[in-house]
Amino acid sequence: MRWQYPERTSYQGVFFSVPNGQPMECWIAETLDYTARYETATYNLQHALSFVNWLPLDPMYHDSEWIEWDEVREFDNDLEIIDPGNIHDSPLFKPGYFASYHAYPYYPDFVYNDAKYQEAECSNGQCTYYGYLQDLIAAHDNMPVVIAEFGVPSSRSSSHFEPGGMNQGGHSEVEQGDINAHLIKDIHESGAAGAILFAWIDEWFKHNWLLMDYELPTERNKLWHNLEDPEQNFGTVAMESRSIVIDGKMSDWPENTASVTIDPAGDASAGSVDITSFRATSDASCLYLRVDLSEALTGAD
């Protein structure tokens, strides 16, 4: 992040101010102040306000992040800070101001690479995520901290790994639920003011770097559900319309399914099994193939 207005280091509003900070913090304070002034004047109401931050911009220093040979790399996630503590609310703003972060256990890498977090233990045992959360809460000087996003996806593939197994994907729905329960327990035990699980339903319109180059055409991405994509499978409610259940039963196959009847012409020797028909159907999540055989396969086959 490179500041566009480096000379702007303070802001004084009616409800919010920055005595000494960075240009971005001043802009955020001005936006918060505008929101509070508008709501107060228009509706004679005030609500608690915050802005969404994320871990690469937290106010702590992380030993495991570094810049090598003055080259900025993807893993240099400790270069800049947006500190909610530099923004102050005035006594005229009654509901209060709080910090909020999107905090996941698998990114950035310093969440599990910093040695001090590796020593932390929650009620479930050793847990780097809990160690990070403790550090984050302590860095905000009695300011309420809400974890505004957390969770893991139940996608087939994983795009980021965490040593404790709380990866960005690669989980069954049961594993997803167990990990999310673990995370919300960590958030509670760390002393956070609250938490918002991400997400209620799957979001088909999203994409992940692991697969986005193959979701073609890109403008149709939102029309189908990619079971491989971690970003599309965070939902605790599956937003999908599977037409076939893979259970060996044929009752859910529609009668008008496209099919090909095959006339066996192969080896008719004892023990051979012929394919008698081949069918295919699809929905917004999957392509299904049904192969009918002349007789059931046995273990020997």
Q: Return the string of H and E elements.
A: EEHEEEHHEEHEHEEEE
Task: Name the poorly predicted regions.
Answer: none
| N→C terminal distance | 62 Å
- How many helix segments? 5
Fraction of residues in H or I helices: 10-25%
Strand order of the largest sheet: 3-5-8-9
* Beta-strand residue percentage: 15-25%
List how many beta strands DSSP finds: 12
Protein structure class: alpha/beta
Largest sheet: 4 strands, parallel
Apparent shape: elongated
Overall pLDDT, averaged? Answer: 90
Rg to the nearest angstrom?
A: 26 Å
Short précis:
The protein starts with 10 loop residues before the first strand and ends in an 8-residue tail after the last strand. The model has no long low-confidence stretch (mean pLDDT 90).
What can you see in these coordinates?
With 301 residues, the chain is of the alpha/beta class. The chain has helices at residues 23-43, 110-113, 115-118, 128-138, 173-190; strands spanning 11-12, 16-18, 52-54, 88-89, 99-102, 121-122, 125-126, 145-150, 194-197, 258-261, 275-282, 287-293. Helix 4 packs parallel to helix 5. The longest helix has 21 residues, at 23-43.
List the helices and strands and how they pair.
Layout: E1 11-12, E2 16-18, H1 23-43, E3 52-54, E4 88-89, E5 99-102, H2 110-113, H3 115-118, E6 121-122, E7 125-126, H4 128-138, E8 145-150, H5 173-190, E9 194-197, E10 258-261, E11 275-282, E12 287-293
Parallel strand pairs: 3-5, 5-8, 8-9
Antiparallel strand pairs: 1-2, 2-4, 6-7, 10-11, 11-12
Helix pairs in contact: 4-5
